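Marked as duplicate of an earlier ticket. Keeping the data here for the record.
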Amino acid sequence: MRTRHMGLAILLAGMTLTAAPPAQADVRQITWHRCQNGQDDEAGKQLDEAGAQCGELAVPLDHRRPGGRTITIAMSRFKATDPARRRGTLLYNPGGPGVPALSLVLRVRQVAPAVAARYDLIGMDPRFVGRSGPLNCGWSTVAVGSAGPDRRGFEHGAALARQMAGRCAVHADLLPYASTRNTARDMDAIRAALGEERISYLGSSYGTYLGAVYLQLFPRRADRFVLDSAVDTDLFGPDLSRTQGPAVNAALRAWAAWAARHDRRYHLGATTAAVLVAVDEIVTAADRAPLRIGRHQADARVLPLILFAVTAGDDDASYGAFAADVRVLSQAARGRQVTPTPVLEQVLAGLAAPDADGSASAQTAIMCADRAASRDPETYYRDIQAHRRDEPVFGALTRNLTPCSFWPAAPAEPPVRVANDVPVLMVGATGDPGAPYAGQLVTHRALSGSRLVTVRGAVRHTVYGGLFAPRNACVDETVNRYLADGVFPAKDMTCSEPHSAR
């Protein structure tokens, strides 16, 4: 499965908040049942057809007060396909934050049959996400977007961020408890309810932070952990994106080199420099006036969000799809009447639509609960201005403020400091634009018992199983042997990339 904007594809589900049960009630029992919720629930139908069970577990809203208010965590389960060789339970988190795993765990079962044979696979919707109670603030848009080229655009973004934060004030009693720390505690509650002494784990992108936090809080309850494309555990929070600039710029240049080699098809320029000039012309045109693209418009706030799709992957299919979109944008920048590609139409429609299912507000709530952001907008404006020259396309996006600068609730606890020697297998790519490799190395050092498998030269975010980006046979074999057979690399290792885009 590949997706260019994961947040636009999150499934809508329901929320359950209850009063605290009586003191003697068993709140650690999972109720299992079929997965489909109504005739329109295609994802639930697919889970049922594949043999999954779905269930819920009541957990404390605030784990420091176990006798207080509870929320309900939803999950799916595929039992091990080889019961005689079953090792235990493996929980999957695909990232985000704010991406439900209840249905996505089916993909893990499909791409890793050797793992599915040995483990019961659990796909948990994190608290306030999907069926675990979406925290919906009723936002009119899914993102603040870019600050644009000038002070006026930055002020507009700050006003939008303030408005979005204000709309979440109705959930102020819940917001402090949306943290990754509490989600890790929910994971451990699931482990206990399943009767497992230890639990295994596969996490990608943000899921690596969740896995690292679990390792820090519950080191003796961790079995085999795999972290794919680890984020910097020292920085995770609302301002983490500001570290992406150099890596995203490098991804754009790598794609531009590919597009130059395919100029006969896409007509964006016969050299890398020429293709980058074409992109700059699109940005400059959108800075002057919104681009008209079919029934949509793309202004300076939205355009960098569209161009961020260059991070989708470095295979021919991903690069070609992005080049087709850039071709449309280039023609629109010249004032021509254009029709968006089907993918571009979907992206533009998503960016123009309200946050109907609350996925964007839930994602923001998690980051705001993990680490406090600066409440002085000027710190962001100065940062953007300082990088106008070296990050001309994406700097005003990745360095812009978020609703966390105006958030109506402070984090309930300080960030988790990750530093332990629990064995954990890490995999990642040197050209990762979503989790820059420098941050992966920070986490590798913090997890001193880890082994890091690096795909050199690959420009993609996530590398295992082809779940969200092109797969690598060397990575897949290493991960599968570790999870299924316990073969842990004796030292860090490198994988080559034989199928890079031509």
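See parent ticket for discussion. The two ends are 22 Å apart (CA to CA).
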